[in-house]
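Lab meeting minutes (informal)
Scribe: AK
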Amino acid sequence: EVQLQASGGGLVQAGGSLRLSCAASGFAFDDYCIAWFRQAPGKEREFVIGVRWNAGSPRYADSVKGRFTISRDKDRRTVYLQMNSLKPEDTAIYFCAAAPRIIWSSLALPSSYDSWGQGTLVTVSS
């Protein structure tokens, strides 16, 4: 069974940094895509950043380019979202997601993913 567990959220001041973790298990990591989405109060779920597990360049939402970075630790079977220069607009519940064989044009679509973590709350104060 595919399981994703997101953690690392918290309260930070604007300009600060935070690293989120997503521990993954129960599926073949080869050919899988891992992504982070977020949902702010009163907003729809929004793509943040995603990458293929074994290869490829990350895809970033325009709002986080230059500030957020995705990485993976294959031994720990964990993906990370490093968030720098945080803004109040980044406040949201952050979800990790995974699915196999997602084409580039569909990487940012929530409907492309069949496994989701529980979400972790990030609050950025102004």
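Next up, CB showed the second protein from the same session:
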Amino acid sequence: QVHVVESGGGLVQPGGSLRLSCAASGWTSNNYAMGWFRQAPGKEREFVAAISWNGSIKYYADSVEGRFTISRGNAKNTVYLQMNSLSPEDAAVYYCAAGSRPIMTPDYDYWGQGTQVTVSS
């Protein structure tokens, strides 16, 4: 069984930065892609960023391009989402997901429980 666990959420002021972490365990190999999605109250879950198993392919939503950076840790089973220039529109529960391909739709095999990001002064 694959487990996906996010961490790093919290409260940040507008214009501030936050780094989310995601660790996946239980996969039989390290060749899996990972993605970040977010869901704000009353809205559908939306794609944020995705990365291939070796980090060579990265995708970003237009709304976060240039502000967010997705990367993989040295251990490959960890993914980070560096979020800069945060605005209240970025506030949401952020979910990490793992799957076979870096895709922008929520068709990943495994999901974490989510971590709350609040942007407020």
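CB comment: The CA atoms of residues 5 and 18 lie 17 Å apart.
No objections, moving on.
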